[in-house]
Amino acid sequence: MRVAILGCGYVGLELGRRLAADHEVVGVRRSAEGVERIEAAGLDGVQADVTDADALERVPDADAIVFAASSGGRGADAAREVYVDGLSTAIDHFCGRSDPPDRVVYTSSTGVYGDHGGDWVDESTPIEPTTPKTEVLAEAERIAIERPAEYGADGTVARYAGLYGPERYRLSRYVEGPVTEGYLNMVHRDDAVGAVLYLLESARARGEAVNVVDDEPVDKWAFADWLADQCGEPEPPKRTVEDRLAAEDLSETVERRLRTSKRVANDRLRELGYEFEYPTYREGYRAAIDAYLGDGDGGDE
What pLDDT does residue 245 have? Predict the structure, then answer.
């Protein structure tokens, strides 16, 4: 299988490494520095902007496209440029080729569910985005499923929970606090990668969205206390959502995000046959805890 990873960054690089064992892989990044990282990982790299169809001509034909591009944490306008305009451009470009892909995988976010007051959600739950950016992501999900079908290809949405893992454990944030209340829905980077790899190789979840989240959403305060105990530190200070809203001058978007609470189920991914490397945060944070106990770093950098 030939796979092109558009936006070959934190998740894409590891996906490329794993795919390269049995498949042909090319990684695509907008910057020269990004392409250097791809090549340093032992993969073929192409410099191209996903919103530029002419630039995408430099990317070879592929059997599958993984769209994992990022807007870099910027606002809704930047998100629309990448996730809506870029995704549409990429689908039209590659699926319009004489040797088109038959699969497009788009990496989205469980943020599209919106607020459910801490209740469980799954793929049957209507999505109700609460911020301008998650509204963009919801629109992109629709494009990812519907637009490939216009060309006879299948789209899949891998709906990621909060990513953590090497260089992104952010352990000190929870150990030191203060920690704001709410639920954490998480997935280790290696399972974010493993799930997409599994769906590609098994040809499953065609034409559907699948939650990529571990087995156990956790209360943030309980998670922080567990981490502190594992690291031999005192329990961190805590605050309610209302405490934080009263103490800080927050944007409307941040306020809405703070008031968003849900627990995301992974039953569908399990039904499809995926087995997690890190089924809960307890396994997933072990390397960070060991690093913290060894040198106080915790793998945040």
Answer: 86
Backbone angles phi, psi at 180, to 5 degrees: -85, 140
- Cα 252 to Cα 131: distance, rounded to the nearest angstrom: 9
Half-sphere exposure of 226 (CA within 13 A, CB side): 12
Task: Indicate whether 298 pLDDT > 80.
Answer: no
CA distance 240 to 157: 33
Tokens describing residue 89: 């451009």
Average pLDDT over every residue of 222-229? 98
Collapsing DSSP to helix, strand or coil, 207 comes out as coil
* Of 133, 34, 35, the residue nearest 76 (C-alpha): 133
Q: How far apart are CA 158 and CA 150, in angstroms?
A: 20
215 secondary structure, DSSP code:
S
* 130 closest CA partner among 113, 109, 110, 108: 113
What distance in Å separates the CA atoms of residue 226 and residue 98, rounded to the nearest whole number?
Answer: 54
At 244 the pLDDT is: 87
Q: Which of 236, 244, 222 is nearest to 175 (CA)?
A: 236
Q: What per-residue confidence (pLDDT) applies to 296?
A: 63
